[in-house]
Fold these 3 entries.
Entry 1:
Amino acid sequence: MTAASHSLPAPLFTAVVAHNWKLAIAVAVVVSAISIAVLPAALSFWVVGVTATLVAAAFTVNAYRRHYFGALLVAPAIAVLFVMNIFPLLWSLGLSFFAYQANQQTIRFIGLGNYARILTNDLAANATWSALINTAMFVVFTVSAQMIVGFLLAILFSKQFPLRKYLLILVLTPMMLSVVASGVFFTYYYDPTFGILSYVINSIAGDQFILMSTKVGAVTGIVFADAWMWSPFVMLLVLAGLVSVPKYLYEAAAIDRVSRWRQFWMITFPYIRGLLMLALLFRTIEAFKLADLVILLTKGGNDTLTISYHLIRIANEQNKTSEGAAISYLMLFMVIVLTNLYLYLANRRTLGA
Amino acid sequence: MTAMTKVKGLATAASFAATLLVGGVTYASADEVKLTMVGPDWPPMRIMKKFFDEQYKPASGNKVTLDIDFIPWPDFYTRVNASLTSGEQKYNFAVSDSQWLGAFIEGGYFRKINDLIDADPELKATMDSMHPAIVNAYSTYPNSTPNYYGFPQFPDVLVTYARKDVICDEGEQAAFKAKYNEKLPCTGEELDNMDWNTFAHVGEFFQRKKGDKLAGQVLDDDFYGIAYQAGKGYDFSTSSVHSFVWQHGGGIWDETKAPTGHAEGVVNSAKSIEGMDHFMSMLKWMPPVVKTGTMDIFVSDQLFREGKVAMNVDWIGLGEASLDPKTSKVADKLVFGMAPGLRGADGKINRTSQIGGQPFVLTTWTTDAQIKEAVGFVKWWLSPEIQHQFAAAGGQSAITSVYTDPKYVTYRPWNRAWANSLDWQKDMWHVPQFFEMLTQQQDQYDLAITGKQDAKTTMNNVAKFQEDLLKNAGLIQ
């Protein structure tokens, strides 16, 4: 393919041929600029759209004639990615440097003003920081709970026992439910009047038990619900690692009279470490974005407001669009730092081993 | 592809674009007029759509259709907000909670209707025939000024829901009389005359444990005397707290006094704090869910329908479910009265209360042809005949001649409380900053409700935040 691609000489810039993408870009820029300046917005929107299509067509013809089939095949995916992800991402980055509210018609450049506000302003910053601390707390608790429970479940299901297949399906069910359904279910489960939890504890202790009335209780409730839903996900990944360990390694170890503990560390663990890391990574990123369960169970009460829920309130409810964009970028930055830290640690341990 | 084909392609695309644009214009000027509306998915909206489809005959002779997007309540604000702010200009009418008015008017989405009222004597007569509290809350921005925007869709007030089988029981009546030396309210009239003191007594008196007796029967679960909204979501404690604050002579920030009015000194005045304390004093008689900060209007309604409380103060809008035996265990045991109030030294009850319900509002991009039909539709909707039918189907009416008609009280058991409650209704702020004020206030009230801070600290924090926010917005000097 590469050989064929050299055979076609680049056209002259002024040549009006279908694969002259350089000319197409130039024409598109000029025509778009003129139409935006002259025509009303409703018309110039279509003109810009048509010129963009023209450029895309020129690119396509060019790639086709030069036999860039790989590029042609991934182009639609990249186009969609650009339109749906990258462009909005850059747009919101730009927006975070302006004072802008979606329900107002004015916009004003304020540089790093939004970032300064969410991190240092005495009214706004408190909310940001306490939401971040709460989020960190939820990340630690939910992820550890899921990793431990998921891991133990995986160990259990790697063995053969009666009804294993059916139990496995049962255990995987929570993961497939919608979060809202689970959230509503847990709201009733924890409810002091209708809920079974209070009913059971009340009849044993004889005292009124209200789980969600303290911070400890509310956090426990949310962490339990989240672990209930997502431990099966960790289990699934770890289980995949466990079944891939060749049996003969254990047989050889048994002949050498290696202890079970040592077998685990020397044989099992190296096989599942990568998958454990993957599960940890996925669950950490997800836990960082926790908002749905908090909204359903506490509405952020008892000091359980997470940064995602805070963001929803700022950007969607209060229409402070650019301040919301700044918070999003703060979150993105943290997630990127966190994931890179994980990957660094994972790689270092692989090299060390 | 040659240059010629390129030009041809461009021309085709341009003509396609032109067709789309021109098509939009000709469509609106034809004799078929489509009105699009967004509203919550609940009976009052469904009834409006049903009546329109079955009965509406436009005076202009045009063919008018009404398209309503029904959105579930929990998503309603988000969806309306997203549609309006994104600029998609999809709706000609939006149902709006009254406090949203300012945000959407300042954003340039809601259309002022003073010119329509002035140009149309019939519409003016309709507006004049409404109760002034409803007009102020649903139509004016800034609040209570003669700048009009909305028309009532479903007007709503707080009323007392009560269980006859419990409060009218002879044994309970006698025990209550012996304990508090006053009569336990039983009939609608007695509920109307109930103040917060008696309401608190009901709360204390009816708090029973599993195994205790209630109205002669052994309880298989804990039972509670009272409930009212005190939850963290949306405005689910504000609606209660504002009523208490007003009744005690305190206040919320008054937007009609901007920019000279203040939040500091008003929101945290001694009387406002007294109101907040009074609100908090009764929480201990409520079902335990109140301690989690999630006792919202739906939770208290459900507790009442499940037969766990004797009295509940809630919006009329939720009433239909309590009358239906399929959704209510107490459907045949109901009696309704006005919401309780604060009895003054003169023996009269102050019932100043936060108004509920929703107006529907015209949007600014609605074309002249559509506006003509929209006005016709509004006049028809607010005509006494249709309002009577609406009330008979479970709605409420703000039109004086309708709700003062003796027939009106026969439509629903709570209607007897409607006319007298209207005089006492007030609304919260209509300013664009309302959601920030509401969120912060709800957070602070939640801390008080769940026992983390006292009334004074709470009101001070709210006042400080509002003073600062409104100063930055130029609404306080």
Entry 2:
Amino acid sequence: MAKVLMKGNEAIGEAAMRAGLDAFFGYPITPQSELPEYLSREMPARGKVFVQAESEVAAINMIYGAAGAGARVMTSSSSPGIALKQEGITYIAGSELPCVICSVGRSGPGLGGIQPGQADYYQATKGGGNGDYHLLVYAPANIQEMCDMIMEAFDKADYYRNPVMILADGMIGQMMEPVEFKELKKEREVPAWATTGTEGKRAPNIINSLYLNPEDLEEHNIHLTKKYDEMKEKEEQWEEYNLENAEVICIAYGTTSRIVKNAIETLKDEGINVGLIRPKTLWPFPEKAFKEYPKTAKAILVVEMSTGQMITDVRAFNEGRLPVYFYGRSGGMIPTPEAVVAELRKIIEGGK
Amino acid sequence: MLLDNKRIKIITGHYGSGKTEFACNYAIELAKNSKKNVVLADLDIVNPYFRSRERADFLKKYGITVVSGLLGNEASIDIPAIGGIYSSIMDSDTQLILDVGGDQAGARVLKQYTSYFDEKDSLLMAVINANRPGTADVDSAINHIRAIEYEAGMKVAGLINNTHFLRDTKPQVVLEGHKLVKKVSDKINVPILYATILREYADELAQVLDVPVMPIDLIMRDRWM
């Protein structure tokens, strides 16, 4: 298929449909409303299900039900709307059901504002719902990558029987970029565990997150932990950019990583080498990228559109080897390449 | 090359057709070539980001006044509150550009103003980007125009070929789009007023195209995008 120009939110919808989306349940919220708008038009036209629920809580529970019945399902929202969905998300994880959740972040806390933000890193990677569970979390930096990650997300959700989150920020949702959609490699079969009706021929399949016997629940938790360990082993993804001979290593994801790359190019023209490690999965956090630094590296600069959340993971895996600095903007303010360059100069020249 | 015989230019089109980028560039050209005040009214009530009001300070340097919401250009809010433009519609010394939000939903906002537009003095333009899925063939492009006309209560009197792939727009991309826009133009009998392209390719394109070429500087898109 030829390239087309699409807005991020529309592209999420198109990619999900190409991935075989059976049903979408959601509720509008800026800056992701173009996604349900697009799907409200396109899903019925392609014989699929679109429901605008009465709330985010209703939508995530519709996802819970439809996923249990074996449908390929997706919901989407933005920061405060994702907060509302947390109860349903932990139920879905506990019941081991596959689904994709798109989170197009705005600025917080509370209702916050409608400009982009990355202050939902904790919400996405450290739970939000109760219990020992994790989401597999992808963080796209452009629209093509987001579409590719969505196709992958549905397959990973099926493989692990676990919810998968695409964490974009409002800028990725709102910006236009050329994109080429890929077709699904093979048709998805309805999973054997789905509650599709026994027809009196088999034992009932049960979808459940309630375990009243502590021994059974611990066993369930151990089983889930094995899945999460497998994700850590197999699913970490990151990009390394200009790391060779880098004096400072920047860590940034999503929109912010693009700004950092621009800053890196500016300094490169002056003969100053700065590198970037861009996490493409936020959970599992790309721990392996931190095993060995280039010998030239003197410091780490974490750049986020928040007051500092991913930095806690960077500090954990840095294990005190290099000093870790932070530059962030919040409230919907977007860091400029010039400001990132200035921070890097302070570190390099000022021996900060 | 600027069609300054009509005092009020109304710029509409599909989501993402590039209306706002065109409107800002057009306003600057107009400000450079006109003795009248140039006012750019941002009437976008459908997009939360990438609205011309975000560039109000930049455009002010060219003497362009940007008006938008009642809460001012800085307010980042997605409610359909616009205002402060009637005086520009009435003032015969003002060149007014209306940057309207995408699709018929965005064009609906025009209805409150159409009875104040003097037909001899106003021009409704439709911006077309052939690389947008919703306007990639003749029929859907015309359907978009008709839907916008219905909401606006006015007829589109000029087309803009704004076919682009952002920074990857070579003349060939615009020429491909021109085939579509030409067919639309012939079918509905509305002239193509401009084709647009990034400034560096404007001369090259002008040599092979039979309509005026408007050079575009990317004003809305930050350099890291």
Entry 3:
Amino acid sequence: MSSRAFPSAVLVFAVFACIPPSDVAAYCRMTTETQAQVGDAPCVETGAPFFWKHPCLSYAIDERGSRWMTNEEIEEAVDLSFETWENVDCGGSPPNLVFTPSGPSTCRRPEFNNNGNVNTIAFLDPWGNPCADRNDIDYRYEPFALAVTIVWRNGSSGEMFDADIMVNDQLSSSVNAGGPYANCPDTGCPPGSAGSPGPSDLRSIVTHEIGHFIGIGHSNIEDATMYAKTEQSSVSNRTLAQDDINAVCDIYPPGSLDQFCDATPLGGLGLNCETDEFGEPVACDEPGSVPGNGGGCSGGGCSAGDAPADVPWATVLLVLIGLAAMRRRPRRRHA
Amino acid sequence: MLKLKSLFVLVGSVLGALLLVSHAQGSVVQALALNELVLHADQIVLGRVLFSETFQCPDGQFGTWHRIQIEEDIRGIPEDESEVIIETLGGRIGDLAMHVEGEPAFSVGERVVVFMRGGGPYTAARPVGMGQGVMRVRTEQGTETVTQSREGMLLMRRSGRGGWQKSVGALPIKERLDAFLSKVRFLLQDGAGGDDE
């Protein structure tokens, strides 16, 4: 570089570098910070980042499936989405992250409790909390949401205990997001018509949501799966960009986990959260089914809850039964 | 030759710097334009966050109530009301937290413009479009500006042909608060907010 060009280049670089440094960040991590984000920074940089302490994780798809796709199609989309994250190349080795499909489950409740848990992927029509009164505000999920990821975690450390992905299975309309969904071809999803909305690619949606499932926030990079905007016709979110790869490799660097690791959720595996062993419905407010005492919602101020610190011995049997029920499918994990 | 080389270096530096500061932005949510936010909002207020309190429902879910002191009623607030309660999903109680990507967070003391649906006497309202329904007011060099809260949301939008397309949302860049409120009022007068105004 010439002696005259160098100072100019440094000056130009410095001018652009004066743009707030937070804009430089690429992927973000979800953190325990509950205060509103201030300024233009794309990432919340305070609080403890979310993480799975034992990143050998199971997931289950609710057996009632979706009105838009067969259970086999859903299973294919969801499995491939998890494998996309699991099979990332972190410099010759995969991340220390293993996903084990279990199930199918019977659980549309995004809950975390002492009696067994499942990281569930459920399709909801109507789009609401099945445990709440339909006339109650607590019933409704955001009507304009296609999917939400609900994470249970330690209040201060960011350690994740449970993550559930809920998909809005209603027909999309002007006042409601939702289906149809499909496994679109690699060339993209077909457009719809004025009266008939085109499908969204389920795999693209789930791949993005799994990023949150493992604690990754949004990215600055437009081609990243974790970028905050996308187009329906696109299936590009199925494929991780380098920024997504950096995120998963940074958070879960290669380690010792393999496909035979113990993927039992904290509190034991409970694939069915809605009926008991006799087929009777499990009440949503069944005492002891939730951390803490269950409490109530009157007045807005309610009971404090504690994470299940110790797994009760009574659940050990359930865990063993659950393990036996887990259907481990062969994984396409790369060496 | 030297000049050409210098030019390349300069252009390269600019491009390199631009790459480093390239712009960007959880839950997958339909992007709403401002007129849609207005249309779907039963109540719109400018106010200050007084406090937030998390509660647990019998089914174990967490919710949080945010109390907002009303500074300006833009739509739908009964005359004798000085505060509104906004409910969001999730929250933290003790050492356990339920986190719902896309739900807005509020800081005590901050000023916000909130587009809400539902709610009424003794009942909480919900922000429209999750975090999209919350605009944060900041004072920069003596000027009050407003920015949209989009934390944790992947925004998508249906086109007229039924497909999805990119959307900039209701407030792609920060605006002066007074100009933004004028736009909202214009939309209300223009009928975007229905016929109850």
